[in-house]
Automatic annotation (TrEMBL), chain A:
Organism: Metallococcus carri
GO molecular function, one term: ATP binding
Gene Ontology BP terms: phosphorelay signal transduction system
TM region positions: 42-61, 68-87, 107-134, 141-160
Source domain of life: Bacteria
Protein name stated in the entry: ATP-binding protein
Keyword Chaperone appears in the UniProt entry: no
Start and end residues of each DUF5931 domain: 7-169
Domain (Histidine kinase/HSP90-like ATPase): residue spans on this chain: 275-369
Keyword Cell inner membrane belongs to the record: no
InterPro entries, per database record: DUF5931, HATPase_C_sf, HATPase_dom, Sensor_HK_TwoCompSys
Annotated Gene3D superfamilies: Histidine kinase-like ATPase, C-terminal domain (3.30.565.10)
Pfam families attached to this UniProt entry: DUF5931 (PF19354), HATPase_c (PF02518)
From TrEMBL, chain B:
Domain HTH luxR-type: 146-211
One GO-annotated biological process of the protein: regulation of DNA-templated transcription
Name of the protein: Response regulator transcription factor
Keywords: DNA-binding, Phosphoprotein, Transcription, Transcription regulation
Residues modified as 4-aspartylphosphate: D53
Length: 372, 213
């Protein structure tokens, strides 16, 4: 059990213990002249002091607290019962249990902190009813204010400790999750930088040598793309959160796209990130369909401060001038509306430059907050 | 014959690249698997070109680049890296590496790059252009330093770097801008040199401030 989040509450409870001790001491000093056994009452009060010291020390450090709480409840009940010996019974009929008095609340506080509101209220009922029984006041239960107050203390502190404990658990869970994500990213990087390189090398060499090794090259190539797909699928999660545009694009793009970006991360909100990645993918898909065989694709990311520009270029066959406008006029929207629509929705713009034999170049511009 | 040293802690990769280079007519005079061994061997054999990996057990590729250049100043360094290591590559280039090639490059591209590096050219791949462009923009927005003003790109250099980063060849860029192929090369070299010079000034100043000089 790691409940370090509870420690401040336990320490605060020891401050309360000290305050209640002052009160009990003042009561003892004022009323011990009415007791039948005055010296015995001082002995009992000394025991109250001793136990307070022990409990304060034990509770204020991180340890298993259940046995201490159990001992505390028993000690408190025993000290309360000693009232009967200190006597005379007639005196206590209209008074609280002495010399413990208000101090007995500490047992309820401890139980509530340890075990939550239900146990807190149960211990309040035990302590409160015992006090009434010892003083012979059980018949007066409806006029007694102590029991409801003890119940409220048990409920409030128990509930508070439960909230703190849950918050602590959630925090720990979040930390564990973050560590797991980091580890996943590290593994992906590792695999990317080592295993994938070797597979790429085997594929390259194998097909250069030719003959029987071509088959090995194909196998290595299949494994390489399978591993890449696995890595990008595994890393797809972080698109739900804000992140680095270059990293997100690199994961999403096919391996044969030449990618350029600044070294520093460009952090964008999750929604902007996923829309931009989708727009770039659409432009690349278009290249694959129309640019002709052997066309290569290039993606450049630039951070201009107030704007982020992503350029998607291919060196394929290009399109005749006005072909996109024509398609739009004919109501065939397709790729250009998919790309332009996404960028407009982000408050940005998409411009395309193309000519026959000159390839196609999309320039996607998104406004961003400066000083991200 | 051009002499080459291959620095990589991955034996399979090191041997494979070494074999490729030997077949292509280069002389592989040494291999190394750490910053330390790379520095010692560079001092001993003074290779023309070093192929440098970014992850070494005892330091980064930038560390290795700096210390190899100190041991053998005439050596030229070509960084070979996975594409996800942008920050490391930028540091290595600022430390004096004269080119950057992704590890997935073909044997043909590797041969051409080593030849060009040995000739003293910068290997300006689109990835490197994007990094350098981004670094100039970052320096332009960083707080000004009166003693060592950040280097800036001319408009023409910016245009050239953007074209390179978008995958245009030097010839295509020359045609688009109406300048000579040679001028394109000069713009590219100048952008890299200014960056490395500024980095050296920065390092020297740091050394003096720390009393290391």
């Amino acid at each position: 059990m790691t409940s370090s989040g509870m420690l401040p509450l336990w320490r605060a409870a020891q401050v309360f213990r000290f305050a209640s001790l002052l009160y009990a001491g003042a009561v003892q000093y004022r009323v011990n002249q009415y007791y039948a056994h005055r010296s015995l009452s001082w002995v009992v009060f000394a025991l109250v002091l001793v136990w307070s010291g022990i409990a304060a020390v034990l509770y204020s450090t991180e340890r298993r607290r259940r046995p201490i709480v159990i001992v505390e409840v028993v000690v408190t009940l025993v000290l309360m019962s000693s009232t009967l010996l200190v006597g005379p019974a007639s005196y206590f009929q209209h008074h609280q249990v002495v010399p413990t008095s208000f101090w007995s609340t500490n047992a309820v506080v401890s139980v509530a902190l340890l075990a939550g509101p239900w146990w807190g209220m149960a211990s309040a009922a035990v302590v409160g009813l015992s006090a009434l029984a010892i003083c012979g006041q059980l018949t007066n239960i409806s006029f007694d204010a102590t029991l409801p107050i003890l119940l409220a203390v048990g409920l409030a502190l128990g509930y508070g400790s439960r909230v703190v404990r849950q918050a602590q658990e959630r925090l720990e869970q979040a930390i564990r999750l973050e560590a797991a994500t980091h580890e996943r990213e590290r593994l992906a990087r590792e695999v990317h930088d080592t295993t994938l390189q070797v597979l790429a090398y085997v594929k390259r060499r194998g097909s250069e040598i030719g003959g029987a090794t071509t088959e090995l090259a194909t196998l290595a190539g299949d494994q390489e793309s399978a591993l890449r797909r696995l890595l990008s699928r595994q890393a797809a999660g972080p698109l739900d959160t804000d992140g680095d545009l270059a990293a997100a694009l690199q994961r999403a793009l096919p391996a044969d796209v030449t990618f350029s970006a600044p070294a520093d991360p460009i952090r964008l909100p999750a929604a902007t990130l996923s829309e931009l990645v989708a727009a770039v993918s659409a432009a690349l898909d278009n290249t694959a369909r129309h640019a002709g065989p052997g066309a290569r694709s290039f993606v450049l990311v630039e951070d201009l401060g107030g704007e982020v520009v992503v350029t998607v270029r291919d060196d394929g066959s290009g399109m005749p001038h006005g072909r996109l406008a024509e398609a739009r006029a004919e109501g065939r929207l397709g790729v250009s509306s998919s790309i332009e629509g996404r960028l407009t929705a982000l408050g940005g713009r998409a411009e395309v430059v193309t000519a026959p034999g000159e390839g196609t170049e999309w320039e996607l511009t998104v406004p961003v907050k400066e000083g991200r | 014959m051009t002499t080459v040293m291959v620095v990589d802690d991955h034996p399979m990769w090191r041997d494979g690249v070494g074999r490729d280079l030997t077949e292509a007519g280069f002389e592989v005079v040494a291999t190394a698997d750490s910053v330390r061994s790379a520095t010692e061997r560079a001092a001993a054999v003074r290779p023309d070109v070093v192929l440098m990996d970014m992850h070494l057990p005892d330091g980064s590729g930038a560390d290795a680049t700096a210390s190899v250049l100190q041991a053998s100043p005439a050596t030229r360094i070509l960084v070979l890296s996975a594409s996800s290591e942008r920050e490391d590559v930028l540091e290595a280039v600022k430390a004096g590496a004269s080119g950057y090639l992704v590890k997935s490059a073909s044997a043909e591209e590797l041969r051409e790059a080593v030849t060009a590096t040995a000739d003293g050219q910068a290997i300006f791949t689109p990835g490197l252009a994007g990094l350098v462009l981004g670094e100039y923009r970052r320096m332009a927005t960083a707080p000004a330093d009166a003693d060592n003003p950040a280097p800036t790109l001319t408009d023409r250099e910016t245009d050239v770097l953007r074209f390179v980063a978008k995958g245009l060849s030097a010839k295509q860029i020359a045609t688009r801008l109406g300048i000579s192929h040679r001028t394109v090369e000069n713009h590219v070299q100048a952008s890299l040199r200014k960056l490395q010079l500024s980095n050296r000034v920065e390092l020297a100043r740091y050394a003096i401030e720390q009393g290391l000089d």
